[in-house]
UniProtKB/TrEMBL annotation:
It comes from Shewanella subflava. Residues 6-54 form a coiled coil. Keywords: Cell cycle, Cell division, Coiled coil, Septation. Transmembrane segments: none annotated. This is Cell division protein ZapB. Pfam families: ZapB.
Length: 66
């Protein structure tokens, strides 16, 4: 291999390594977003269950009054 080919290979490897680092950073950001969304989803499910219990309680009161 000529020195020029080795230089081109080195450049391509360096570009690939930089791309890998960028992709790793993007992946970490997406993991953080996913964790935040999972947490938000759990909170919303708890809120929904709470409201459902309240509504069922109120319907039960109405039924007992009738």
């Amino acid at each position: 291999m000529s020195l020029e080919l080795l230089s081109q290979l080195e450049t391509k490897i360096q570009a690939t390594l930089e791309n890998i680092e960028l992709l790793k950073m993007e992946l970490e950001e997406e993991r953080q977003k996913s964790a935040a969304l999972t947490e938000k989803n759990q909170q919303l499910e708890q809120d929904l269950n709470s409201w459902s219990d309240k509504v069922n309680g109120l319907v039960g009161l109405l039924n007992s009054e009738i």
